[in-house]
Design a protein that fits this description.
Distance between the termini: 59 Å
Shape: flat
Structural class: mainly alpha
Helix content: 55-70%
Strand content: under 5%
Length: about 90
């Protein structure tokens, strides 16, 4: 009974708070808008489109997956040097 009551209270707390968070979406601008754009306008530089626009489709997801694959390959290649080589020296107390 207590578990159901806690679940019900948690559900209503989340349900009542979510619309409040959704309304304040545009209220808090990011660092780019508040700091970077302000100084860029003061120095006479206007905003421009990025060279590689990652907001289109799944390009950003692809770039993260590609970086993870490259990082995994590098870590796999050097796995022995990082985690295995030198263990026998540490086990003997040297």
């Amino acid at each position: 009974m207590r578990l159901w009551l806690c679940a019900l209270v948690l559900f209503w707390a989340v349900a009542l708070c979510c619309p409040a968070f959704a309304e304040e979406g545009g209220k808090w601008p990011g660092v780019d808008e508040t700091v970077v754009e302000k100084f860029a306008k003061e120095l006479g530089r206007e905003a421009r489109d990025p060279y590689i626009n990652t907001d289109q489709g799944d390009l950003l997801l692809f770039l993260f997956a590609l970086a993870g694959g490259v990082g995994g390959f590098i870590m796999g290649y050097f796995w022995h040097k990082v985690f295995v080589a030198g263990k026998e020296n540490m086990d003997s107390g040297e």
